[in-house]
Structures are given as structure tokens and as C-alpha cells.
Amino acid sequence: MGSNLEPAEEGQNRKPLGIQFLEYIKRSSLSFKTHQAIVLIVTFLAYASYHATRKTTSIVKSALDPQSSDLGLKSFPFQRAYFHKREGNSWVLGSGWAPFDSSDGTALLGDLDVAFLSVYALGMYFSGHLGDRIDLRIFLTVGMLGTGLFTSLFGVGYWGNIHVFYYYLIVQMLAGLFQSTGWPSVVAVVGNWFGKKKRGLIMGIWNAHTSVGNITGSLVASALLKYGWGWSMVVPGLMIAFIGLLVFMILPVNPESVGADVDEDDKLPTDKKEGEEGPTEPLLRSETDNENEKAVGFIQAWKIPGVAPFALCLFFAKLVAYTFLYWLPFYISHTAIDGKYLSNEAAGNLSTLFDVGGVIGGILAGHISDRLDARAITAASFMYCTIPALFLYRCYGHVSLTVNIGLLLIAGLFVNGPYALITTAVSADLGTHSSLNGNSRALATVTAIIDGTGSIGAAIGPLLTGYISEKSWSAVFTMLMAAALVAGLLLTRLVVAEVAAKIDQSRSQGAASRPPTPAHEV
Question: What is the pLDDT of residue 15?
């Protein structure tokens, strides 16, 4: 019976219930632009909630592993001692939370980070592979509900009085597995609805969900910390589960799934001339064409020009970004600013300014890369600027709160700018590369390869920081600056190619604008 359905009826049956409800209220089908708006809003909320749950562990670290930061012990700021801040600069003896209050507590917290991110990175490759083959709406919903469950179970350890390290390790690993479903899914959905024109700017603005999620997670977890660190994990876990249900109810994964007609203004541009054979963008393809496409294989996706250098660049870019994500609140709370130490809550709130700078950086990088039509030049330039930004923050961030805020914003701008650009616009560009001959079923796989490779760096950065910080935070910043330098250098070949293309384009335009040479001068 199902085979007798007309294509329009099949699309109607696949529409999310929320879309059907909106059309029932409106008494007509939703416009293409309305669907685009729904996609941007819902995927924004979805991935912001992923990052909100990811950020919580960095906030609770100071409660799990309190360290002495009393002015009288300033000479030994990382010596293991067990203190809780009471108010101002006065301290009382406390015990933290076993097993993280032991002499190797910081290293154990680093092990949790690397366990989470290692499983996340490995799971990313499989998630991208699955994402190009199954319903992304269902896949994303399951991932969000699973993330909410295991984030909450970490917090349950507070009320269950659980002090077994392997409980927290296993919970973090499972949380990382479900977290890996998010990024390939949301980028693939957005890539299905938006073409390359202004993709950098649109996705740069949309990518603010990463920083908004980090800020939200920091503020919520910091505010709840005084009631018990378990609340800082459970509440964000419940938040992502709720938004996961919203995704299930309303997210249209592609135009075909809701029978949306592309307006003339919304048709995606192609590079081919009239009458010329060539690849087209996903939205210009019919549903039948989509069904006949075979999803691109893992090895084939790696061979797409540009995938490998951008993936390796992101390895080092995320190493820097995730070290800040997981350790910045801890670093701030254990570093005297203008001779004073901030409380755990104040340090968590201050760390959000790094993400505020990241929002600006993501939008700026996307806009610049659109205007220049040069993704590699933009990403490499930002990575090189990251080096002096990190150096200045380490050397002068302690001078005053105002200086710390300013340098934190600048560091966030340059660190997150290329990270945002590569994981959004670059991934979407390469997922619809001309070498695929118009096959649109590579978005999730390419996105997963790039971000999965980056996530390996994201796992290594916090792990190394857990050990290196016990000796010297200056050494940590040296590691981060070296990583930023390597990230920029990895794009050198692509940068040279873009510069050469710009020179050739300029020469061609110059030759076309010159008047023809008179015949008598020849």
C-alpha cells in the first residue's frame, strides 16, 4: 500500500508532528524561508545544549578538587592542600570529593577529560557514517536524550555518595559517545538547507551556539554549585533532554522530508554555465536523485581535496580551544588577579568572556572568509594571531580584572574564530565538493572526519594540561602557542594556492580592463 503513495503524500507522512501542527494552525504549507528559520533555531538550541552539558565538568572541578590559593601560600599555588573558600580571601579546611581530593586529583580530572574526548572523537567517525544513512532527526534525538541521561548520572554521584573513580570514568565515556552524535547531524541538516553563498557568515553567526552553550553551562553550573555540585550536572542534563524532544517534534532534516518548494531566490548557485554538465548543490536535486545516491565512504571522504589539511589543522586548533573549555575556570580560580583570588563561582562567570570573544571571532572569521573567498587564508591568519594573544594573557592577565577581561575577549576571538570556521563553513563546503559529482550524501561523513580528528586534539590538550599544570602554567601556555603555530603551518599549501588564485584572478581582471592595443602599434 505504501508503494502507491504519491511523492507528496510520502513527504507529508514523514513530516515531524510539530511541522504538521504549525501547518494545521496556519491552514497552509510553511514557506521555504520559514523552514530555514526553524532549522537554524532548532539546531542552534540543540548544539548549544550539547556544549552546555560539556561545560559543566569544568565548573565542578574546583569543588571536586579544591586547592589552596591563600595569599600566604602564593609561592606554592599548586601545592596539594585541601581548602574550601568561605568568603573573601579566608579559607577553611575541607576535603573536596574523593577520589579527586587526593594528591593526584588534578591528574584524575584530566583522565576524565581524555576519556570523554577520546570516546567522543572515536564515536564521531561512526556517527558521521551513520548520519549519512539514517534519519538525522531520530539520530539527533537519541543522542541528546543519551547525553542528558549520562550527564545527570555523573551528578547523581553526589547524592549517592559515590567515591569510586571508575563510576565517573564510565559515565563520562558513555556521555562522550552520545555527544558525538551532535555535530555531524546539525551541520548536515543546515548544509541541506543552505547553499555556499554567504555560508561563512550565516554559519559563523549560527556557530555562536558553541559559545552560547558554554556560557549557559557555565552560568547555570556556577549558580547551582552552592547547592551541591550534583545540581550543576543534573539540571543541564535535563535541559538537553527537553530540547531533544523539541528536535524530535519539529526539526525538518531536508526540504524533501517536508515537501518544501525552493523559491527562485533560494535556489543554490552552481558553477556551471548554461548547457554545461557539472555538479549541482543538494537543494537542486530531486528526491528520487537523493534516494539513488550512495553515501560516500570513509576513505573516499578523506581523499576529497582539502579535507586532510583542514582536519589536521583542527586537531591543533581544538587542542587549544578545549584546554580553555575544560581548564580556564580552574586556572582563573587559582591565579591571583590584582593580588586577589576569585571564588569558584566568580571564576566560572569570568571564564564566559572567553566564549563571548569566541562568538565575535566566529562571525568575523566567517564574514572575512566570505568576502575574500579564502577559507584557508582566514583560518591560518587567525591561528597565527592566537600566539601573541595567549602570550599576553599569560603575562599580563593577572595585572587587573579589567586587563584580564580585555585579554580574555581577544584570546577567545582568535582561538574560536578558525575553530568555528573550519567546523562549519569549511566542512559544509568540502561535504559538497565538486569532486563528489553532485553527491550530497557526504556532509555528515566529511564533518565527522574533520571534527573527529579535531576532537583527538581536544582530548590530548586537557590531558596534557592536567599533568603539566602541576609543574607550571607557563609551560601549558607554551604548549598552546606551539599548537597554534603548527595549526597555521598545516594550511600553508592551501594558503599558497589561494594567494596564487587571487593573483591570477587579479591579472585576468587587469588584462580584461585594459583597452586593446591599436593596430599601428603592433
Answer: 84
Give Cα separations from 254 to 125, 406, 411 (angstroms): 22, 41, 36
Strands (E), 188-332: none
Q: How many other CB atoms sit within 10 Å of the CB of residue 103? A: 8
DSSP three-state, residue 441: coil
Domains and CATH numbers, the chain: 11-74+98-260+296-509 (1.20.1250.20)
User: What cell was used for 368?
Assistant: 572575512
CA 365, CA 387: separation in Å to the nearest integer? 17
C-alpha cell at 84: 574550601
DSSP for 76-106 reads STTS---EEEEETTEEEE---STTTTSTTHH
Contacts of 18 (CB under 8 A, 6+ apart): 246, 249, 250
Closest by Cα among 201, 135, 478, 198 to 365: 201
What cell does 520 get?
Answer: 599601428
Phi/psi for 93 (5° steps) reads -65, 135
Cell numbers found for residue 66: 579544591
The structure's pTM equals 0.70
Q: How far apart are the first and last CA of the chain?
A: 77
393 touches 411 (CB < 8 A) = yes
* Rg of the chain (C-alpha set): 25
Q: Which amino acid is at 397?
A: G
Positions of E strands within 28-180: 83-87, 90-93
Cα dihedral: 466, 344, 100, 80 (round 10): 70
Return all residues near 455 (Cβ < 8 A) that are at least 6 apart. 117, 120, 121, 124, 180, 318
Tens of pLDDT along 415-452? 988 888 887 778 767 765 555 544 455 667 777 788 88
Contact between 466 and 113 (Cβ < 8 Å):
yes
Please provide residue 230's backbone torsions phi and psi, each rounded to the nearest 5 degrees: -60, -35
| Torsion sign across C-alpha atoms 321, 327, 333, 337 | negative
The answer to whether 187 touches 417, Cβ cutoff 8 Å, is no
Q: Which residues pair with 91 in a beta bridge?
A: 85
Helix (H, G, I), strand (E, B) or coil at 198: coil
Q: What is the mean pLDDT of residues 111-139?
A: 84
d(CA 54, CA 144): 12
Cα(128)–Cα(73) distance, rounded to whole angstroms? 49
The vertex-362 CA angle with 357 and 364, nearest 5°, equals: 90
What single-letter amino acid sits at 307? V
- Asked if the peptide bond before residue 99 counts as cis, ω within 30 degrees of 0, the response is yes
**Three-class secondary structure of residue 125 per DSSP:** helix
